[in-house]
Specification:
Length: 301
């Protein structure tokens, strides 16, 4: 079953990218990222309740407080990622965000907590970093007229901006920090309980986002505009479940590279359905980044 769970995780997480992009790409809605947090909080809260009352997962305040720093790093990274979707193509942001595994490996090497690695693993880390840096350089140096020309089909125009690149990079940094902290905290916590603690914390974040957005700022929720956000939230939660089951199958070395490929599926969906068209240089850098991510997945870092 590991193969099918891996495929489900790939499709769900790329689907989460796709629908989150649809739900957050309107630059006129300054609160779309908070509304996305609300959607994910609702879906994760429902799943947490199912895990507690039906699945019998044990949860306590001690577990929630212990896992809280990790939860906050993940939630903050995702929130910044949702903001970034207003300013940059999904085809560019997804590979940058998913390069966080390379940063985790670098931190592990520097801190001395990494296991002995094969030379090809160092190559993978270098490829992911070079690819992300290359994307940033290509994006920043692209001629404005060429940019406008290739963005015609998508009907969404993204101006050259340091913020457009800074937000997915910030996601990458925070997600890497969360992953590194996750490995340390899970030495003392049950994985199922930790996941429920994360989902309950996301529910709390969603409630805070609702109070700020709908009560304080008096923003209205339009069903047509919010529907993609909730579809994305469902895909995000389902992908997390499939990921856990795929790795729990004992075939993580085979499952990891398949799941790591989801950013390329995100690029594919954005090209087909969102009509995002990048330059040849963009795609070369994305391919380099993906090669690094895929190799890291094969070796299951």
């Amino acid at each position: 079953m590991w193969f099918w769970f891996s495929i489900i995780a790939l499709l769900c997480w790329s689907g989460s990218d796709f629908f989150s992009k649809i739900g957050c790409r309107d630059a006129r809605d300054k609160y779309s990222h908070f509304k996305m947090v609300m959607a994910v909080g609702v879906v994760m809260g429902i799943h947490a309740a199912w895990e507690i009352f039906v699945g019998g997962v044990e949860i306590s305040w001690d577990v929630i407080w212990t896992y809280l720093p990790v939860s906050l790093l993940y939630i903050l990274s995702m929130t910044l990622g949702y903001v970034g979707l207003r300013y940059i193509e999904l085809s560019i942001s997804s590979p940058i965000c998913n390069a966080s595994g390379a940063l985790v490996a670098i931190v592990a090497i520097i801190s001395g907590t990494a296991d002995k690695m094969a030379p090809i693993q160092y190559v993978a880390i270098a490829l992911a970093c070079i690819g992300v840096i290359g994307i940033g350089i290509v994006e920043y140096r692209e001629d404005d007229e060429l940019r406008a020309e290739r963005q015609k089909a998508s009907n969404y125009k993204y101006a050259k901006s340091w913020l457009a690149l800074a937000l997915p990079v910030a996601y990458c940094l925070l997600d890497a920090a969360g992953t590194f902290a996750d490995d340390l905290v899970l030495e003392t916590l049950n994985e199922d309980s930790a996941n429920v603690a994360y989902e309950l914390t996301f529910l709390a974040a969603g409630i805070v986002a609702f109070i700020y957005t709908c009560i304080i700022k008096k923003q209205k929720l339009v069903a047509k505009m919010e529907a993609p956000k909730y579809v994305g939230a469902i895909f995000e939660t389902a992908g997390q479940l499939a990921y856990i089951y795929a790795l729990a199958s004992g075939e993580s070395a085979l499952a990891a590279p398949i799941i790591a490929s989801y950013c390329m599926a995100s690029v594919l969906w954005s090209r087909i359905f969102l009509k995002e068209k990048l330059s040849f240089k963009h795609y070369i850098c994305i391919a380099i980044t993906f090669a690094g991510i895929l190799i890291m997945g094969i070796f299951d870092m």
